[in-house]
């Protein structure tokens, strides 16, 4: 039998009937499920941080403390006057793009989660808020700006969000690091399972492989047979894992949207993120194929 005709056959190694195939496919399915869930978390955290940087770092908030007066109408008028002074000053600051005082309706919407829907803020000494958009290229000394603002409008105070935002970003980075570590561990464990399963299979088929070498088959041919089989198991296992992971991702996302405050809602998966997640079966196929191929090549050098 010639070498070329022998290589054209595909059933010399009975790999499809191995008991380890089902075990490995289950392991890959579980690994891809965990990998997809964790990866969606990593991508969501990255998206959340990016949205924070765009929406918060480019803005600051000015608070107008209400004046202390028993006459509500007089106190409200004085507070609004301080607000106008603050608005006029902020519009004159270099780097400020837009200055927007919040209306009564907007303030009511902000306070309703804590005070209830039926509270009339005109009956309360409610601070006035001014939303200020600043240019990304603006070079503003916020400490000096706060001092100048206090001179222009004594009841005004400045909050540029940096202190609490830095804490949130540090927390998000910590979660991202943990999730990335989980991804590496899952990938390593899966590769290890493929490695040891392949070695076990090589031991079971040691006699067949020796006969193949006597006939003229090379290590590369045997490695290709294992690589093709593992590629199939990797893809099928990845597809099954992804099949269960996608509904779980949507379920977790819906739970996150129910959290009030708007912070978690900034975590979203875009088209590119979903493309990466949906490509995981191809990734598991590639990892399985390469791991099996090089495992066979390396093991056969020691066995034969």
Can you give keywords for this protein?
disordered N terminus, alpha+beta, 8% strand, 304 residues, 4-stranded antiparallel β-sheet, Alpha-Beta Plaits
Can you describe this structure?
This protein is α+β, with helices and mostly antiparallel strands and 304 residues long. It has two domains: 3-54 and 165-303, no CATH class; 58-160, Alpha-Beta Plaits. The protein has ten helices and four strands, in the order ααβαβαβαβααααα. The protein has a four-stranded antiparallel β-sheet with strand order 2-3-1-4, covered by helices on one side. Helix 2 runs antiparallel to helix 6 (162-204) and helix 2 (19-55) crosses helix 8 (219-257). The longest helix is centred in the middle third of the chain and has 43 residues, at 162-204. It is elongated. The model is unreliable at 1-9 (pLDDT under 50).
Order of the strands making up the biggest sheet? 2-3-1-4
- What percentage of the residues does DSSP assign to strands (E)? 5-15%
First and last CA, distance: 22 Å
Give the C-alpha Rg.
32 Å
Helix content: 55-70%
Q: Largest sheet, if any?
A: 4 strands, antiparallel
What overall form do the CA principal axes indicate?
elongated
What is the chain-wise order of helices and strands?
Answer: HHEHEHEHEHHHHH
Category from helices, strands and their pairing: alpha+beta
Count of DSSP strands:
4
User: How many separate domains make up the residues?
Assistant: 2
- The count of helical stretches stands at 10
Task: List low-confidence stretches.
Answer: 1-9
Query: How confident is the prediction overall: mean pLDDT?
Result: 79
